Amino acid sequence: MKRRFFALVAVVLVPVLVLGVFAWRGVQAQRRMAWEEAREEAKRIAATLAPEAGRQLGALAIPILSYPDPPQPQPDSAAMLRLANARDAVSLRSLREDVAAGLSAAGLPIRVLAAARLLEFEPGTENSEALVRLALETEPSMLTPAVLTAAETRGMTFASDWRDRWRSLERARTVALRNANANHTWLAEPDGPWWIDRDSMTTLPPEALRTVPVGEVTNHLPDWAKLRFRIAGIRDFADEPFAQSPITEIPGLSLQVIVPDRSLVEGSVRQQERWALAMVGGSLLAALIGLALIHRTLAQERRLNEMKSQFVASVSHELRAPVASIRLMADALEAEKVDPETAKEFHRLIAREGARLSTLIGNVLDHARIEQGRRVWKMEPCDLAGLAADTLRVMEPLAEERNITLTSELEQFEASVDTGAIQQALVNLLDNAIKFSPPGSTVTTSLSLYGERRSWRLSVRDNGPGIPVREQSRIFERFHRLGDELRRETQGTGIGLSLVKSITEAHGGTIAVESSPGQGSTFTLIFPITSHSSPLTSTP
Prior knowledge:
By secondary structure, the chain is an alpha+beta fold. Among the domains are: 78-178; 184-263, no CATH class; 375-537, Heat Shock Protein 90, CATH 3.30.565. It contains 15 helices and 16 strands. The chain has helices at 2-60, 78-85, 89-96, 110-121, 125-138, 144-153, 159-178, 262-265, 267-334, 340-372, 384-401, 419-436, 469-472, 484-489, 496-506; strands spanning 62-63, 184-189, 192-197, 202-204, 226-231, 243-246, 253-258, 376-377, 380-383, 405-410, 414-417, 442-450, 455-461, 510-515, 521-528, 536-537. The strands form five sheets. Strands 10-12-13-15-14 form a five-stranded mixed β-sheet, with helices on one face. Strands 1-4-3-2 form a four-stranded antiparallel β-sheet, sandwiched between helices. Strand 2 (184-189) and strand 3 (192-197) form a beta hairpin. The longest helix has 68 residues, at 267-334.
């Protein structure tokens, strides 16, 4: 049996484990495929966005200012004379618009000086803005900070924005002057890396590199992808990029695609992994539950087979002893070798053994009929006290033989029952009580109504060795008998109590036992008064 069960375990569990291995390898293959697909996608993203990033970075470049610092004195010029002789707004406006005006003797832009004097004749926002734009973009010089300060003093709201721009331009000019020998280079400054391009006289400030300016394109990036700029030798990273592409417009600058959270790439794979694990785990759990049920069934089958074998052995023993006695006594009577008194005793013993055989065979046949559902219950009104008294009289010879006293406490009432079945149940209870009680003890049978006369109960109490608690839940099972010690000392087939239980349940009742080792046992059958007013057929 064990070998068969272990073979079954191997047959069931091995396929589940193989399925688990294949599921795990499949998930690993999907994970590798997901990373390969993500890597190809990252390469495509980097190659596509790098040119766009280069164009937008070019739009963010700012000019590098170029003017003498300190101002260089200049010889007098015609434009300087025009400025000195200008006494009206028209002359000053003309000089402000003259792109060839040049520098004054002090080295300052004449156009800026003319625009400043024009405000004395025509103060207003238009001329103020023209002055600021001219000083900041067209003709920057040492005058520019003073012009911006004057504009802020006059309450011009745009002046503060222009001052911020001037600071950026001055910062770019300072960085460029500090590295005057570099035409195209990246400079590591405290505020960040600067790109200097002297060919176009432009620079790329650090703030332009703090985000990747690729516009709406970034809105269509996969969830797992992030962009960053790498500057060779200045802004390197410890972690390897997923993909990168150089920005040709700015040497040394490349666009990198990184994966900050690996779980985003493996999201769908991990979902499949969870489903696969759930499937394998569910299959394994179902297999284990199935194996447990099979093991339980096999154990019950093995136990039932053992009990049936014990039953066959017990029945054989129970039949062999009385049959052998009857044959011996019959042979002696036939040979007329016994005296009349002994012959009379032999006749009594033959009758007793025959009754014993009849009871045994009747129990076996009734048990088989009940199991197969062929037993027909004939319910009819019955004087239960009379039925119990008659049964006690039938059992008195057996009790006297074992020196057991039978007593009764019988209440008079009627109920609709199968008379033969109830008597059979009581006979089995009394037979067990007499069989297990020590000589000189008493067996008491009680019959009474209770529960406002809605039920009645029949009980048999003995003074036997009692039943262990662990055995009490099994004594009503088919073929079950108590442990080996009692089994050797007492007769029986193990179906008596099972038959009593079946009879009780067929009448809609219940059976209970109260017992403890050394204190005797009390078996109680409880029946409803109103149940089964007509014949019934039992169910197996």
